[in-house]
Amino acid sequence: MNLGIQKVEALDAGHFVRVEWEDGSESRYPCVWLRDNCQCPHCFLHSARARKLVVEDLDVNIVVKEVSLPDRKTISITWPDEHASEYEAEWLKKRCFSEEARAEMREHLFLPERQYWGSDLQLPEIPFEEIIYNDESACKWLCTLKKVGIVLLTGAAPKQGELIKLGHRIGFLRLTFYGPTWQVQDKTDANNVAYTTGKLCFHTDYPVLQHPPGVQFLHCIKQTAAGGESEVVDGFHVANKLKKQNPQAHQILSSTAVDYTDIGADYCDFAVQCKQRIIDVDSRGQAVRINYNNATRDTVFDIPAEEVRPFYAALKEFDNLLNSAEHKFTYKLKPGDIVTFDNWRVLHGRQSYPSGSEVTRHLEGAYADWDVVMSRLRLLRKSILNRD
């Protein structure tokens, strides 16, 4: 982006600054935003990339006193109190308020594009060693994880500790009441339904937390010969289907606060309670997080009695869609496989397998927050782009 500025002028009695670019396009900037984002050392701490100007000192009705174009790459503004601000062309262009520019910035910062799937999923695969030691492969892994919601890493050592390496690669893992990592295997007096040999219905992990982990890792260390197949379903895709098929059911699941509970002891003792909507939506009504775990859904249900049956009817329809053959994808992990998936989007389950006197199936699990994952992704993309 090397566009220069052709012309600059104040508009609307000084409340806006209009920039005309060399390619003929234009941008309009509100003066209160320009003053709020002055880049001078008095207003902005560049070593921390943080604003020093406080809102109490900001005049929301501020207008420019003078605006000028000292060169094609900078505009200068003098404010009524004689404070002077300068803004570089590239900095301004990136922050243009047009819908196109804002969409481009959203794509750059958050990678919002999603690729929906059902039973036709082509499970993306990348060698584990590549993402550990190669930035391009790590970037591809995280970009695909954000877009598709699931990636299989292959060729890890079939032993505990590989997920610690994964945590170091992205930054750090999420600590929960089950520990920094946890062992999925048949256990006596299991404190979690996952620690049995029974079938696990489609669920997201930890909706009992106010901020459930965004990403989950499951490393296959030992696999049973019979049973134990993994199943996944794209929760956002199914939520969209439900919205089209039964808008009222979707409205109930996206507005009803469901109680979740988890009480026990593991990494430490815990008594966790939370209220979550099964389908969390944004201001546009698009699903942004699925919070559904039938095992930890509480017997307490804090809604009027007459709303209970309609809720169950909506939940049943959602669950039926999750389990339909066209939506679910089944696969079987091999020792050394690590499945990485979006815990806010992808619901996972497991088919039952035979119990015995010895442990026949062992997965190690861990979590990471999307904030940590996206931070690493942005740094990797920047490093790769700068290298080019």
Automatic annotation (TrEMBL):
| Reactions catalysed | 4-(trimethylamino)butanoate + 2-oxoglutarate + O2 = carnitine + succinate + CO2
Q: Name one GO cellular component term.
A: mitochondrion
Residues forming the TauD/TfdA-like domain are 120-367
Q: Which UniProt keywords apply?
A: Carnitine biosynthesis, Dioxygenase, Iron, Metal-binding, Oxidoreductase
* Pfam families recorded: GBBH-like_N (PF06155), TauD (PF02668)
Q: Which molecular-function annotation in GO is an example for this chain?
A: gamma-butyrobetaine dioxygenase activity
- E.C. no: 1.14.11.1
- Which GO annotations describe the biological process of this protein? carnitine biosynthetic process
- Domain Gamma-butyrobetaine hydroxylase-like N-terminal, chain residue ranges per copy: 13-92
Report the cofactors.
Fe(2+); L-ascorbate
The pathway entry for this protein reads as: Amine and polyamine biosynthesis; carnitine biosynthesis
Which Gene3D superfamilies has this protein been placed in? 3.30.2020.30, Clavaminate synthase-like (3.60.130.10)
**EC class of the enzyme, as a word:** oxidoreductase
Q: Which CDD domains match?
A: CAS_like
State its role: Catalyzes the formation of L-carnitine from gamma-butyrobetaine.
- Give the family this protein belongs to, as stated in its UniProt record: Belongs to the gamma-BBH/TMLD family.
Q: What is this protein called?
A: gamma-butyrobetaine dioxygenase
